[in-house]
Amino acid sequence: MHSAIYSTKPGGKVMIIGMGTPIQTIPISAAALREVDLVGVFRYANTYPSALKLLSEKNERLPDISKLVTQRFQGLENIPAAFEMAGKVKDDKGNLVLKVMVDTAEAAPQRSSEFKHTL
Q1: N or C: which end of the chain has fewer CB within 10 A?
Q2: In this structure, how many other beta carbons lie within 10 angstroms of the beta carbon of residue 99?
């Protein structure tokens, strides 16, 4: 919640979805001074098609969602570090931690010539 409030532009909205605990401590003064609206959402399962359509259109009026992933880790061996980072509000350089991504894709293994034509 802290990261969402501080990273939202003045006058923006923060959607509160899937609260982890019944009582949260949030910087309400920061939200009020920056006129950030906090909006609770109870049901959202049926909104995925609309959201995907909006994102696929790449409308110039919508924010650049690529900026939501703020930290990236490569490989399965870095998952513990990624989880540790996800639990922080800011990284070691002072940057906000919004979304941590782990890329688990590995380069495709080279096939030997004897297997190229087999099914």
Answers
A1: C
A2: 13
